[in-house]
Amino acid sequence: MPKPKYILSPYLKQGLFWKVIETIAFPIYTKADCRKVCELFELKGLPVISESTLYRLFLLEGSDNIPYLQTLDILAKFCNYKDWYSLEKHLNELSTFELSFGKVHVKNRSTLSLLTSCIHHNELKSVYDFSEQFDGSLELQKKGALGEEFYKALKTNPNKNDLFFKNFSKLPIVREAFFEYMADPTFIIPSYEIGLKYYLLGIKPEQSSKSLQDFVFGNCLLFRYYFLDNDKSESKKLGIKLYETYNFSSKDLASIHIFPKIRFLAYKIFYLNINGTIQEIQKYEIWLLNYVSKITQKLTLEEKRIVLFTIADVFVNNTSTKVDMHNQLKLIFGDVLNTLPSFVSATSLKDALPYLNRNAAKIWKI
Questions:
Q1: The Cα angle at residue 83 between residues 77 and 89, in degrees rounded to 5
Q2: Burial level of 209, CB count in 10 A (0-12/13-18/19+)?
Q3: Choosing a second label site near 350 at 20 to 30 A (CA), which of 104, 112, 129, 237?
Q4: Side-chain-side CA neighbours of residue 254 (13 Å)
Q5: Strand, coil or helix: what is 109?
Q6: For 339-352, how does the pLDDT look when each residue is reduced to its tens digit (9 = 90+)?
Q7: d(CA 311, CA 267)
């Protein structure tokens, strides 16, 4: 009896592709990437799908490949779903949610969502009313879909984003789904600096752990931006605020998310470039590697990836960091590198960064 096949719509095919990428946490560009995914199937105790099958399904241009249902079941289980029908149901629920803000999927056509169109024309009242409905209880994947749409709308906005940031930065769903989940450390979004300042307005870190997390998150992103942009005045001012006025300890930071926490600890290397010596930088780098080496056993794989990426980003952008430090970082996180294509551990940290990047805007299809 022949195995049943399943015709995938373009939306379901793309959704499945990005679910796999979210699971493996690195982009799939080549057959070599497909080969690594096959190895990860084995590690999860799943039947192996050939690299050729994955390549035809996801990467081959113009392919109308119709996969076997068994293949889809394996891929769904790999992405932590019961079977293909469970994943298909979830993707269809996401599609329905996207319709609520006017996003439609038309084959071979790029279309603007209603939300994006309203932002581009500064018709913000309806967007505000829509966004005000949601709080932190919204499902993570739906937060991601909404945050992605805000990201794309603001990135491509032909007008200034200042008015949006002024009016929306206090809305819970915009703070979480856009600012936090879709953080933009490269500041590619127009007026993003202004947006972060509105996000931080009135935040006092001593009020609560959430206030502390927001304070550290926003100020660290601004500090990195000013430092790498060679804005000496602003970077020094913000560095003093973070590392002298407050100078949070590891104990202070224990209650906040690993990403802002490790940003704060790692970005101190940037501050020591401004207000320290080479010897102080090198001493702190050794402390930082010893610190993460001690805590790594308590971290999940995803948390390890966040720590690895954040420190690697600093080491790459800090010209005084020696290659020996790069190699020590790789050794500490060897188990993470083993889940990535084999060339990543062999290449330089700079070339490895695209495979390590844990910012959601890079992992999602932005």
A1: 120
A2: middle
A3: 237
A4: 6
A5: strand
A6: 888 888 899 999 99
A7: 8
